[in-house]
Amino acid sequence: MKNYKLKINGNTYHVKVTDAERNVVQLEVNGTAYEVELENEVKQSKTPKLVRAEPRQVQNVEPLQTSKSTRKIIAPLPGSVLEVNVQVGDAVKTGDSLLVLEAMKMENTILAESSGTVKSINVKAGTSVLQGDTLLEIG
After folding, report:
1. Beta-ladder partners of 5
2. In what side-by-side order are the strands of the sheet with 106-111?
3. 88 domain residue, yes or no
4. What are phi and psi of 5, to 5 degrees?
5. CATH number of the domain where residue 84 is located
6. Burial of 133 (0-12, 13-18, 19+ CB in 10 A)
7. What is the average pLDDT score of the chain?
8. What is the pLDDT of residues 115-130, one digit of tens each?
9. pLDDT tens track for 68-95
10. Spatial CA neighbour of 112 closest among 134, 133, 136, 128
11. CB 16, CB 32: distance < 8 Å
């Protein structure tokens, strides 16, 4: 458990506490085992226990309204747009090439994740983009 080096009246003692429970401590002094009874109870240090409040039930929750009509295509990493392969109003299918993004000296083709019509294009060839920027929207 814990080791101590005590000096009493010029003599050095190596004390090893092997167990401490309530007011009884078991220890070894220079290899000899002893059981010592303390006047006060030993305070055990414990890792604090995290106490969380019980989750509360929420009543009358309306479903989240999402706009499925428009989906944003975002830049997966920072780079420069080399070419845009679509125009506003073009119909695209899942897997169609939308644009080419150069990032870290590599050309990355950005593909349509779903079918739809190109609603807006926010970039053009030569535009620098950051990760997370909206490139275009498909509706």
Report:
1. 14
2. 106-111, 97-103, 79-84, 128-129
3. yes
4. -120, 110
5. 2.40.50.100
6. middle
7. 84
8. 999 999 999 999 999 9
9. 678 899 999 999 999 999 999 999 999 9
10. 136
11. no
